[in-house]
Amino acid sequence: MPEPSLSATTNATAVDNGDVVAGTQSLVLDLPPVQGTAKVEKSKTKKLGIVGWIAIFWLVAVCAAAILAPVLPIPSPTKNFLSATSEGPSLAHPMGTDSTGQDMFSRVIWGARASLLVSVSSVAFGLLFGGILGLIAGYYRGKLDTIFTNIFNVFLAIPQLVLALALVAVFASDPAVSVGKREFWLIISIGLVSIPIIGRITRASTLSWAQREFVLAGRSMGAKNKRIMSRDVLPNVLPAMFSIALLGIAVVIVLEGGLSILGVGVPPSTPSWGNLIATGRNELTRIVGACPQVILAPSIAIFLTVLSLNYLGDVVRARFDVRESNI
Amino acid sequence: MRAVLVRVVQLFVVLLVVTIFTSFLIDAVPGDVTYTLAPVATPAQREALRHDLHLDRSPVERYGEWVSGLAHGDLGCYYGTSGYSTASSCPDKVADRVKDALPISLELMFYAQLLSLLIAIPFGVLTAYRAGTMFDKTVNTTAFALLAIPNFVLGLVLAYYVGTKLGWVDPTGYVDFGKDPVGHFQQLALPVISLAAGQVAIYMRLLRTDMIATLQEDFVTMARAKGLSPARILWRHALRPSSLTLLTVAGLNVGALIGGAVVIENIFVIHGMGFLIADAIARRQYVALQSYVAILALGYVLVNFLVDILYAILDPRIRHARAIA
Amino acid sequence: MVAAACSSKKSTGATTQVGSSDTTKPVEGGSVVYAQEAEDAGGLCLPEAQLDISGENYVRALYDTLTVPDDKGNFVPYLAKSVGHSADFTVWTIGLRDGIKFSDGSALDAQVVKNNLDAYRGAYPARHPILFSLVFGPYVKSVDVVDPLTVQVTVNQAWPAFPSYLWSSNRLGIMGQAQLDSADCAKDLIGTGPFKLREWVVNDHMTVDKNPTYWQKDKDGNQLPYLDSITFKPVPDGQQRLNGLTSGQFQLSHTSSSIDEEQLRALAKDGKITNNESDKFAEVAHYMLCTAPATDTVCPGSPFSDEHARKAVALALDRQTLNHVRGKDIPQIASGPFAPGAVGYLADAGFPQFNLDQAKQEVAAYKADTGKDLTFTLGGTPDPESVETNNFVAGMFQAAGMKVTTYSVEQTQYINVAVARNFQMYGWRNFPGSDPDSLFVWWNCNNAAPAACDNLVNFSGFNDPAINADLQNGRTEPDPAKRQADYEDLNRQFSKQLYDLWTNWVVWAVDTDTHVHGILGPPNPDGSAPNPGLASGHPMLGLFVTK
């Protein structure tokens, strides 16, 4: 059998009782790593390379800016420079200002804070629960596996965005709740959406490791399941989860943007990259006082961040040979 | 035969769980439809309206009503001020909305898939064949960059530059194929491109990876040895067994494109299924939402089934492998 | 084009103030697409519906009201032939025109008008009005058929402004008997209006066709309306409406956004479109403060039952700057709820001027009284423009030392939040400058102060004896001078108590392809000029296209 590059797909094909559904609906997660050459079938030794270092540098810079936003020498993101509304980039405002004279550079940096908070937290939430469920399903197999897999499948039948939209409507539509609470529920909603996706991939990866000799040996020697899972299986599954986490964060940054366009993302009083684009969407098209930087600045920030995350996700995957098959 | 049976059972399980889940989920949404039908009302008036709409019944009862309607081929009725109604007396049938919106969503999905496959397949095959060359690297880098552009950003930029600035097409709106075929494709071009851009990258990379693997298989080496032309090997022999992953992912994408294109639908003011769903959530139209989610779930299961069948056609070995599993 | 000749630096010269004379000769035939900012998805069962601007335009196309306001804001008969009253203003006699037919062929007679009025006030079994039952229910004693063309309405006290209620911001259309009784009253639209419904795909489009036997003709004896058909398309995003107008996708579009209007003025100046603006009989945009004592369910967390808190926000709100930056200096800053020309208008009703230092003092006074920082939330609609505006305003409050969080509420839930008094500070607009008595339903409380107002739609929850008295006196007072005094008093009381922070009178613009004319329609049947306000839509019967 030709070896498909996707761990989830491969495993699903083989063991899912006639279910070939790949591990995820979020397609970015399905990307196979780019291989440099046709001669080496799996480039296990994929190097980070200069691009990788640039990507890491960018992500570190974005994270640092997000964490340090309150102490950086930048104006408040909500300060209105009334003598400089809708201005292009200048020394005082490196990314220009929006129509109410707010400094776009500051808003993009503060936006990173909200976008990263939401994406990292919700992916962490998804990893924790999806990971545990996937681990259990993949390790114990049998009935438990069937139940979990079917639950994952069922929730994959509803498009992510629709599910997130519905969950946000349930949890975060009471106007009386504070920004913090809305962000919290947004994180929970997106986290819930990601559970089946992460669960499936973790399960697939676990399945392959749980069949390995050293695990089987441990089992036959009577070691406790919990112990095997945490000592033998988990460390091997972690790289897969890490690469998913990187890609997942990228997906959620974009998802938050989509939700913002639909009016249910991070509340507008706290800038996020998504809501900057959503509120700025009309600035692009104005006949009088158009200031495209209002949407371009956060768009470029999303672009570079997603690009870096995708690239590093690829590298991690290739490096740890996440595409391991159980056949 | 057994596979078909399994599928049918699976279909019902998915439908049941998804709709029950939706039913309880929407029950938990604060504020009900009476607030959108009659924003201003005394508590007594609101209670009366809730009673008329059967909203004072338990979620289980309402779910039962919906299911029994469905069993009679009735997708339900939008809530209105005239009270609860069944298909026969319904002023605003969910089925009518679906009849308008589903074809639009299917068109959008179909064109986006077609466009992305038409671009992705040749590039995927060629980059695999020329793996490691400058051509491969350039195409891959471009694809990688495309992938990092959120579709709504692309949509907004296209709507502005192509729609408003250049004036080639109307920046918003949908034209029916039957009324104006040229206008139809003009109007759908931008949303389709916005949806397809990211997919091209994904599809291409999937195909390229599988193709590289296939090209190292013995039968390819054999074919080479026999002196078949590279083009013939690539297109006639190697492509088919290499397209399984691509097929799976493209299949999954069908569901995501039908309901999940809501942001692009919003930007281009196209009233497809995504729009209906978002609108039903916002207006707390539970019955309608229930039916829409059921339609999506149905589509998802059917497409997966179809992918299964195609798998077997594309690669006969699968049939055998399946039988063992 | 007038606009092309205009070279003033400010683009205002390009804009037609509606009501200015347009002498283009009407042309019959043609059809237009009209982009609307919203959709009344709930349908047009008029007594039960709670319509927004697009619904009001639908009503203008499909129905007629018994009265309409003229250019001076006086109410004149429209579908009615005459509206008369007894000496004490308690019995109103409505005379009907002979020979008017509904779109289903049935005749307009006294019985169907009585049934309509009964439906609006909640005395017609098949219909369950909500908002209108608050407006009419307690105040209308009976509606009787006197003869086939005469209806008599008896009200419980002198009610000189009653004819304005027969218009009710264009919401009181007269429906055919079949629609009144229809189970599908929301979609089964039967009126006497200039157009008939062809099809309505909710959220997509409504197409209406000319009513060839409409009862009105223009002054040259030509049958009205001029257009063969109108297609209304809901396009909620203002920028998308504007883009569609310039690309020729739409022939008409409307907006009340200053950001859009600034661009539309520029387009009109270049002769690309016709921009018809009006701030006549305008609504007032304002921030509502939830002023009832805060509990878990009423005004939760709101500091605004405290006078210092209200003064602090009023003093910190720099309305000049707000109007300059967000309003593009297009609308006028509002002195109170009543726009110029309306009864009760005052150039200065005493609303506090912006004063940052005093605002800070009030914040300190609030803290001294309550031991708390002045903290509150500010809610608005989710459209980008209002989000930006509210963030901008929040910045002003923050500058005075308050802590403000902005948030947005889905359009469909927006009123619900206000009715539930589940807000602290909330963006709003209302009170189109009809007769000031129309405010009665919004503000009057029937329970004794200081309990929170028992009136459902007094969203702020204030219960002010002075305001209740002014509303009551204004309603029953026939003498115009005394009425003016009553409403001026009310106006001042608002600026003193600061239940609402007035920002501006809303400018509405109807923008059209340069070939579209006749936004305001022909003179009223009694010969008076049509009302130049655009806040409740505009007539459709006089629209025509010269191409």
The gist of it:
Chain A is an all-alpha fold. Chain A is built from ten helices and no strands. The model of chain A is unreliable at 1-44 and 323-327 (pLDDT under 50).
* Oligomeric category: heterotrimer
What percent of residues of chain B adopt helix (DSSP H or I)? over 70%
> What structural class should be given to the helix and strand makeup of chain B?
mainly alpha
Element order of chain A: H for helix, E for strand: HHHHHHHHHH
How is the main sheet of chain B built? none
Assess the beta-strand content of chain A as a share of residues: under 5%
| Number of distinct beta strands of chain A | 0
Give the strand tally of chain B.
Answer: 0
Overall morphology of chain A = elongated
- The termini of chain A sit apart by 10 Å
Instruction: State mean pLDDT of chain A (0 to 100 scale).
Output: 77
Q: How many helices of chain B in DSSP terms?
A: 15
Please give the radius of gyration of chain A in angstroms. Answer: 22 Å
Low-confidence stretches of chain B: 319-325
Roughly how much helix do the residues of chain A carry, as a percent range? 55-70%
**What is the straight-line distance between the termini of chain B?**
15 Å
Largest interface: A-B, 69 and 85 residues
Radius of gyration of chain B: 24 Å
| Number of helical stretches of at least 4 residues of chain A | 10
Question: What does the main sheet of chain A amount to?
Answer: none
